[in-house]
Task: inverse folding
């Protein structure tokens, strides 16, 4: 079968790899000149099965209301005259009940564990190098109240097989000595030893090289303009190439993996995808003094920032702003991140040489991605991965390849 994968981000690239492994002919189409150039470009780097608490949870509505007026809020809704945004917000509120939250955590942990195993197997199979670290993820708390509130979701994750241990502040410093500087402020932490980190962009580009060597075709600088239907199936995709020439691309099946742009193209086919862009920031800076820099991947609960060590660079990422497709860089937010790094690990990174980036997470109201068949039998969906697209990439890519091949996925997940 010839499968056309739309999008060469983490989800498109992993789909292409696993589809090829299943013996299909694969063509990937992307508007950028190189793969993984949009949301998969400079994310937080965490392979974080333990980061399974969805944004929508029983405490969210009150927090979000309080944050509405705060420019530096971790989750900021900039309400606009945009029907899609309002529909998303209402669905988000419906996902905040205890029952929905439990259900969503279950999906996120199951897919996360499977995905992490799939990534580890892939490393054993083809030996990819992408500044990976397998020292776990340590989530630290500076508020006693937030630390106490972490116990219940951590227990639920342990019951689901994700060993997120609750640990003391002293134990946190033993695991990551660079935290010693803020020991007096620490209320406690959780630690998930099996979690990992690594440069998602480097991973994607390495995997593209393997795919190309294996015969996968990449049509870069090709902008998809429409998916056309005939007889209840996708008949072809229309695109324009770098010179603006019109193209028709045909396959037997299609995988929609265009990140936060996916819903705009599905809509014309009568498929409503509840995905809205959630802008996030990242800062990358060279390590200045390795003895002061963290080694373990970290989550700073108070500032909702994640920290990864990518070789001789520090990557710090976070914040979420629902404000349409705007990718503007707010200097105030960038500088706040650099200040926080200096506050936590003084002298560790070279803030003068920091590089700033924003990306649009393809967010669903539940934080659960949309993977599986659509109402058109030859259109498959692998999109809406929000905050965890790197964590979930390998498991989602392998699952969609199995579904396309008529095989049962290997993970118990609410597939579409
Ligand atoms: C600040 C930040 C930090 C993050 N940190 C983490 C983390 O630590 N761990 C984690 O697991 N996840 C993290 N994520 C989430 C993760 O990066 C995303 O979920 C993931 O990159 C989404 O991948 P994707 O392939 O769905 O989308 P993308 O990477 O955006 O890929 C979609 C592709 O479709 C292409 N495309 C779009 N429209 C068209 C068109 N019309 N024609 C042709 N091509 C088109 C784009 O060019 C793009 O290459 C973070 C995200 C952000 C923003």
Result:
């Amino acid at each position: 079968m010839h499968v056309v994968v739309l999008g060469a981000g983490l989800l498109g690239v992993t789909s292409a790899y696993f589809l090829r492994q299943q013996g299909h002919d694969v063509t990937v189409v992307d508007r950028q000149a190189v793969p993984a150039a949009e949301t998969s470009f400079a994310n937080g780097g965490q392979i974080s099965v333990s980061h399974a608490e969805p944004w929508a949870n029983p405490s969210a509505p009150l927090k979000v209301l309080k944050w509405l007026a705060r420019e530096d809020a971790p989750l900021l809704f900039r309400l606009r005259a945009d029907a899609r945004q309002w529909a998303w917000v209402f669905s988000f509120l419906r996902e905040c009940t205890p029952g929905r939250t439990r259900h969503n955590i279950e999906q996120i942990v199951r897919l996360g564990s499977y995905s992490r195993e799939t990534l580890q197997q892939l490393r054993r199979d083809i030996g990819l190098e992408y500044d990976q670290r397998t020292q776990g993820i340590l989530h630290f708390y500076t508020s006693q109240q937030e630390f106490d509130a972490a116990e219940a979701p951590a227990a639920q994750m342990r019951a689901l097989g994700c060993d997120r241990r609750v640990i003391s502040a002293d134990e946190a410093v033993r695991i990551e000595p660079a935290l010693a500087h803020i020991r007096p402020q620490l209320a406690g932490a959780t630690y998930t030893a099996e979690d990992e980190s690594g440069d998602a962009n480097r991973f994607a580009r390495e995997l593209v090289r393997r795919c190309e060597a294996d015969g996968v075709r990449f049509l870069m600088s090709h902008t998809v303009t429409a998916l056309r239907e005939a007889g209840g199936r996708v008949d072809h995709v229309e695109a324009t190439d770098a010179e603006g020439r019109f193209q028709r691309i045909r396959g037997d099946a299609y995988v929609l993996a265009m990140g936060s742009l996916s819903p705009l193209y599905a809509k014309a086919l009568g498929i409503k995808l509840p995905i809205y862009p959630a802008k996030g920031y990242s800062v990358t800076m060279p390590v200045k003094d390795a003895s002061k820099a963290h080694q373990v991947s970290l989550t700073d609960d108070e500032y909702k920032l994640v920290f990864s060590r990518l070789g001789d660079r520090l990557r710090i990422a976070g914040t979420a702003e629902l404000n349409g497709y705007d990718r503007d860089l707010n200097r105030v937010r960038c500088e706040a991140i650099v200040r926080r790094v200096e506050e936590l690990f003084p002298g560790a990174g070279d803030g003068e040489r920091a590089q700033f980036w924003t990306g649009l997470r393809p967010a669903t109201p539940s934080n659960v991605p949309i993977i599986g068949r659509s109402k058109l039998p030859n259109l498959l969906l692998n999109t809406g991965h929000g905050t965890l697209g790197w964590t979930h990439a390998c498991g989602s890519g392998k699952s969609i390849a199995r579904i396309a091949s008529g095989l049962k996925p290997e993970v118990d997940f609410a597939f579409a």
The CA atoms of residues 89 and 383 lie 19 Å apart. The chain has a mean pLDDT of 96. The radius of gyration is 21 Å.
